[in-house]
């Protein structure tokens, strides 16, 4: 039990540091990071020949994916966005362009067609949020487990890339049995591939 408590405390500490570091970014730094991130995400999608991806609508504290979403729409790349379901599960929506709604936990979610369970396993590439990722590919989420449950449930798991800021790539993040590793990470300055 002590080891579990230590892991939970360490995860909480890292999340707090990440939140503080992200809050300290100026509007200019956020804008520049968003533009650079769009370029890195586009490079990844093009290099892998992806025609369908998952992504997310960013919270104010998350790396800004809005430029990438516009880029993908302009190139006819299908983008699926997450929606919160009961039981801390994710559903996936094909946005219809009619706006957004307030979802669970105050997170903005797209309006659109809710796809059948398992549809996310058919995309070419998954781009998911994270608080941090380590150099072995272990992802640290925000503590509710939505993405870990989603990844664990997939029969076919596409390549998964955590989207983070440069300072969120750490030497090590604590992990428990339910935590899911990722294929790589995308930051404003680089695309990383793990293992």
UniProtKB/TrEMBL annotation:
<dbReference type="InterPro" id="IPR002698">
    <property type="entry name" value="FTHF_cligase"/>
</dbReference>
<keyword id="KW-0479">Metal-binding</keyword>
<keyword id="KW-0436">Ligase</keyword>
<dbReference type="GO" id="GO:0005524">
    <property type="term" value="F:ATP binding"/>
</dbReference>
<dbReference type="InterPro" id="IPR037171">
    <property type="entry name" value="NagB/RpiA_transferase-like"/>
</dbReference>
<feature type="binding site">
    <location>
        <position position="62"/>
    </location>
    <ligand>
        <name>substrate</name>
    </ligand>
</feature>
<dbReference type="GO" id="GO:0009396">
    <property type="term" value="P:folic acid-containing compound biosynthetic process"/>
</dbReference>
<dbReference type="GO" id="GO:0030272">
    <property type="term" value="F:5-formyltetrahydrofolate cyclo-ligase activity"/>
</dbReference>
<keyword id="KW-0460">Magnesium</keyword>
<dbReference type="InterPro" id="IPR024185">
    <property type="entry name" value="FTHF_cligase-like_sf"/>
</dbReference>
<feature type="binding site">
    <location>
        <begin position="11"/>
        <end position="15"/>
    </location>
    <ligand>
        <name>ATP</name>
    </ligand>
</feature>
<protein>
    <recommendedName>
        <fullName>5-formyltetrahydrofolate cyclo-ligase</fullName>
        <ecNumber>6.3.3.2</ecNumber>
    </recommendedName>
</protein>
<keyword id="KW-0067">ATP-binding</keyword>
<dbReference type="GO" id="GO:0046872">
    <property type="term" value="F:metal ion binding"/>
</dbReference>
<keyword id="KW-0547">Nucleotide-binding</keyword>
<dbReference type="Pfam" id="PF01812">
    <property type="entry name" value="5-FTHF_cyc-lig"/>
</dbReference>
<dbReference type="GO" id="GO:0035999">
    <property type="term" value="P:tetrahydrofolate interconversion"/>
</dbReference>
<comment type="similarity">
    <text>Belongs to the 5-formyltetrahydrofolate cyclo-ligase family.</text>
</comment>
<feature type="binding site">
    <location>
        <position position="57"/>
    </location>
    <ligand>
        <name>substrate</name>
    </ligand>
</feature>
């Amino acid at each position: 039990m002590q080891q579990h408590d230590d892991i939970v405390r360490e995860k909480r500490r890292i999340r707090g540091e990440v939140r503080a570091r992200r809050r300290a970014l100026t509007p200019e730094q956020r804008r520049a990071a968003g533009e650079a991130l769009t370029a890195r995400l586009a490079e990844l999608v093009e290099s892998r020949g992806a025609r369908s991806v998952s992504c997310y609508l960013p919270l104010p504290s998350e790396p800004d994916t809005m430029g990438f979403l516009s880029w993908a729409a302009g190139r006819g790349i299908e983008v699926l966005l997450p929606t919160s379901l009961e039981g801390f599960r994710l559903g996936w929506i094909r946005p219809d362009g009619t706006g957004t709604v307030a979802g669970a936990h105050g997170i903005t979610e797209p309006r659109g067609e809710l796809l059948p369970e398992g549809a996310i396993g058919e995309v070419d590439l998954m781009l998911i949020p994270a608080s941090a990722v380590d150099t072995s590919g272990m992802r640290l989420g925000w503590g509710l487990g939505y993405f870990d449950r989603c990844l664990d449930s997939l029969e076919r798991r596409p390549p998964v890339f955590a989207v983070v800021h440069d300072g969120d790539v750490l030497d090590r993040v604590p992990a428990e049995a339910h935590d899911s590793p990722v294929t790589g990470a995308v930051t404003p300055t680089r695309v990383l591939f793990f293992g």
